[in-house]
Write a structure and sequence with these properties.
This protein is mostly beta strands and about 375 residues long. The chain folds into 2 domains: about 170 residues, no CATH class; about 160 residues, Immunoglobulin-like, CATH 2.60.40.4350. Helices cover about 10% and strands about 40% of the residues. It is built from 5 helices and 28 strands. The strands form 8 sheets. Strands 1, 2, 3, 15, 16, 17 and 27 form a 7-stranded mixed β-sheet that branches. It has a 6-stranded antiparallel β-sheet with strand order 19-20-21-26-18-28, sandwiched between helices. A hairpin with a 2-residue loop joins strand 5 and strand 6. The longest helix is centred in the N-terminal third of the chain and has 15 residues.
């Protein structure tokens, strides 16, 4: 049975961005928030091991009974994850879709142009505003949406302002100044001054970090506990319970195809393009054909943000993990179903995880219509 593990900060939290400490110069190291998937997954697995009384040296050195429950350092074993995501007062929040544009005068969305345009990708259908006259419209920045807001967007409707949660209403960022220490000599290090930005969730927001966990034998695992989380090992409380379910939407009367939106970062071989999709010529323009969960799709256009860089620390090898670039959350793909019913295809793809590293929660889809 799938569970939801939620983490609550007891003070501030720091989830270091991908740049190393020694490269920052006079700039600050910011926090990635929501935190990277491996951070919360590591906290979950550590909590499981501590609850089962593991000796971590024995766990890392050779065969261990716990490997059958939560895997090894290089594999998750039977565990599968979804997320991470934020929760406010127990309600899951979702990334703002990049195809939704907001201005002071109103809201519109992007959709594939009816006429192909020549660009660096070739002759393709670029996304254009559904309301060309709306000036100054841009994607929602530093914002999340509620389940009702996601349901509206996937149904082709506008997202009500009451369903938008700005980051400044959920948490604040605190600047910290520090210097490295030489504990053997009991002096500070020369030239090792650094600056960081911590995350402090607002009490009024009831903010938590959530992750879905499947494949866990939780017989001897308690329902709550404490864990060290993120850089500096900041203390957080955790609890586990039933997992949330993605909202399902009905097909609008005049739907042209499916809209695939990334709820978690996705790792694709070609950066922005989902794995398995290949270019095809259609009416003098370039589209991409592919197969997801047995559904044959024609990718017409996409709205993809800047790649997200993630690395992390390998605690077994005691070395940084290689950096990888992920397609960011909120990215939208406009597709047509080549064969089959539109609503059946939506049901088959909604909640699917695509790309690489899906066991780590990568590439979770919310599927609606355009």
């Amino acid at each position: 049975m799938k569970q939801q593990w939620s983490f609550s900060a007891l003070d501030t939290l720091f989830f270091k961005e991908s740049r190393p400490m020694e490269s920052v110069g006079g700039s600050q190291l910011a926090s990635v928030f929501p935190p990277p998937a491996r951070t919360l997954i590591g906290a979950v697995r550590t909590s499981i091991g501590e609850a089962l009384g593991v000796d971590w040296r024995e766990y890392a050195s050779g065969d261990h009974p716990l490997h059958a429950i939560m895997g090894r350092s290089d594999t998750l074993g039977p565990l599968r994850f979804s997320g991470p995501y934020l929760l406010s007062h127990g309600e899951r929040l979702f990334p703002a879709p990049l195809a939704c544009l907001q201005s002071a005068c109103g809201q519109t969305r992007l959709r594939p142009d009816g006429k192909a345009t020549h660009c660096d990708l070739g002759h393709v259908y670029l996304p254009v505003k559904a309301d060309p006259g709306l000036q100054g419209a841009k994607p929602l920045e530093q914002a999340l949406i509620t389940e009702a807001g996601l349901r509206s967007f996937l149904s082709g409707l506008a997202i009500a302002p009451s369903e938008i949660r700005l980051a400044i209403d959920l948490y604040v960022q605190e600047e910290r100044l520090g210097i490295a220490r030489d504990n053997n000599r009991r002096v500070t290090g020369d030239g090792l001054l650094y600056q960081t930005r911590h995350i402090r969730p607002l009490h009024t927001a009831g903010l938590q970090m959530g992750v879905g966990v499947a494949g866990l034998d939780a017989t001897n695992v308690p329902e709550s506990g404490m864990a060290r989380l993120g850089a500096e090992g900041r203390l957080a409380a955790w609890q586990r319970g039933p997992a949330s379910v993605l909202p399902v939407v009905a097909s609008p009367a005049k739907a042209q195809g499916l809209l695939l939106m990334l709820l978690t970062p996705a790792l694709f071989e070609r950066g922005w393009l989902p794995d398995g999709f290949v270019p095809q010529a259609q009416a003098g323009a370039l589209v991409w054909h592919g197969d997801l969960a047995g559904v044959r799709l024609r990718l017409i256009s996409s709205v993809v943000g800047k790649p997200v860089r993630e690395g992390g620390w390998d605690m077994v090898q005691r070395a940084p993990r290689p950096l990888a670039s992920y397609a960011p959350v909120g990215s939208c793909y406009f597709c047509q179903v080549i064969d089959g019913d539109l609503q059946q295809a939506q049901a088959a793809l909604h909640g699917l995880q695509i790309g690489q590293e899906t066991e780590y929660g990568r590439g979770e889809l919310a599927v609606g219509y355009w």
